[in-house]
Design goal:
11 helices, Gyrase A, domain 2, 459 residues, 3 domains, alpha+beta
């Protein structure tokens, strides 16, 4: 076997083996310890709301009926909710504006619905408030409006005065742990926030500083010394999940308007288990028809193309699990469409190859010419498809249409992999069969008439 063909064939076999292992439905993942380097990676299948189910939350602006909410405030709220959802680690979420100052949020496969709903709906307004000489109890609801309490102040509300700074002065926030392993919040201030905090703590050593979230006190520490380095901690009776949720709210800012949850419900898979099973069966039947067509129409090259197509499917699905890509009905449609494009590339190559054989060129030369002359058409068609995928993905990201993003992403990945299988895999298989194994019978390449035998022989 020629060295080049041998190297390519070994590489293809290795890629196919790894891809098949990862793509296999019951794949255990990769768990290795090689030379002190540990690899522990699972590759679960990420399913969207229509396949796996999840929760749907309807948020609405919590303002008086006489108050008009401008569109820009709702768009800002949608953006912040989207960032909070992304921080929850939810795959393929849907966040979009609806009529009536509402925001629809769909979270597929969410594990903790109550915590997710709370994270989305809380305003996330962090305030550092001058509490004077008296500490405030955790959970106390405060009013930071200036002046004495008014008659409209609720009995459970405690009047306090100066707000030293808000969450807008935060540069970063992360979950940390104290010496006893209890969760806390490590935060870093902006340069402006650090100056304000440093000036205040320098002048108020010995006094209490209340830290509140959405007007509710979560901590009221005493200022023991000036804090001028712009770093601090927020401790309290947090569970790890509460600390993580709080960090999400602080890191991605407070909502410009308060939102309330008007509806929250668990959503089952819209397709249903039976419909999903039927879709799988339909996909297998469709793939089988394509494979059979390639064999009947192109004979030996069709068989090799089918092998390449199976490798294509394994590699593509493995990439879906490794990236990971959340599979929705639209995403599956993009994947199936890319299968058709992968077959199309092989058809262009084989038709070009048959034209060269009919023109009297040798078998080896016809194979090379088939790939070279089909490449411009394959390149241009696939490149135009990738441009379309980019536009669709941008559109989905801009307007919150994640279903379009999923379609564009799976189609783009499939197109890129199809180029690999059509140009490298199929070409290597043909080279091995013709040049190394020595298969030269033209009838195996779809040519039957005696006049189609190449005048130059099979060289």
């Amino acid at each position: 076997m020629r060295p080049k063909n041998l190297r390519m064939l070994i590489g293809i076999i290795l890629v196919a083996a790894v891809a098949t292992f990862i793509a296999f439905p019951s794949s255990p993942g990769i768990h290795l310890n090689l030379f002190g380097m540990k690899i522990n990676q699972d590759y679960p299948i990420h399913e969207g709301l229509d396949l796996k189910g999840g929760i749907q939350v309807l948020l609405q602006a919590d303002v008086p009926a006489t108050t008009t909410v401008d569109q820009s405030s709702m768009q800002s709220a949608e953006f912040i909710v989207q960032r909070r959802v992304d921080a929850l680690g939810v795959s393929e979420p849907l966040v979009q504006l609806a009529s009536g100052n509402r925001i629809i949020v769909q979270l597929p496969g969410i594990q903790n619905p109550d915590a997710a709903v709370k994270t989305l709906g809380d305003t996330g307004l962090l305030e550092f408030v001058d509490a004077g000489s008296t500490p405030l109890q955790t959970g106390t609801v405060i009013d930071t409006s200036q002046g004495a309490p008014t008659s409209g102040t609720k009995p459970a509300t405690t009047q306090v005065y100066t707000t030293v700074m808000t969450g807008k002065d935060l540069q970063s926030a992360d979950v940390g742990f104290d010496q006893y392993g209890h969760p806390l919040i490590d935060f870093t201030l902006t340069s402006n926030g650090a100056k304000k905090f440093g000036d205040y703590t320098t002048k108020n050593v010995g006094k209490y500083l209340a830290i509140s979230l959405d007007k509710q006190v979560i901590e009221s520490p005493v200022i023991q010394q000036p804090i001028t380095d712009g770093r601090g901690q927020i401790s309290g009776q947090f569970t790890l999940q509460q600390a993580q949720d709080l960090v999400i709210q602080l890191r991605y800012g407070s909502l410009p308007i308060p939102l309330k949850v008007v509806d929250s419900q668990e959503v089952g898979p819209t397709l249903g288990a039976q419909a999903i099973q039927q879709s799988i069966v339909a996909g297998i039947i469709g793939l089988g028809i394509v494979l059979a067509f390639m064999v009947l129409n192109y004979r030996l090259p069709g068989v090799l193309a089918d092998l390449a197509l199976l490798i294509y499917a394994a590699v593509t699905f493995a990439l879906f699990r490794m990236i990971p890509v959340t599979l929705t009905l639209a995403g599956i449609a993009g994947f199936i469409l890319s299968i058709g494009m992968a077959v199309d590339a092989n058809i262009l190559i084989f038709e070009r190859m048959k034209e060269e054989l009919r023109a009297g060129r040798g078998l080896h030369a016809s194979i090379e010419a088939g790939f070279e002359r089909a490449w411009p058409s394959i390149r241009d068609s696939n490149f135009s498809t990738l441009i379309t995928c980019t536009i669709l993905y941008w559109f989905g990201a801009t307007f919150g249409a994640s279903i379009i993003q999923g379609f564009a992403l799976t189609l783009a990945i499939g197109v890129i992999v199809s180029l690999f299988t059509a140009i490298l895999v199929t070409r290597t298989f043909l080279s091995v069969v013709v040049d190394d194994i020595g298969v030269r019978k033209l009838s195996l390449f779809g040519l039957h008439e005696p006049t189609e035998v190449a005048r130059e022989g099979v060289a």
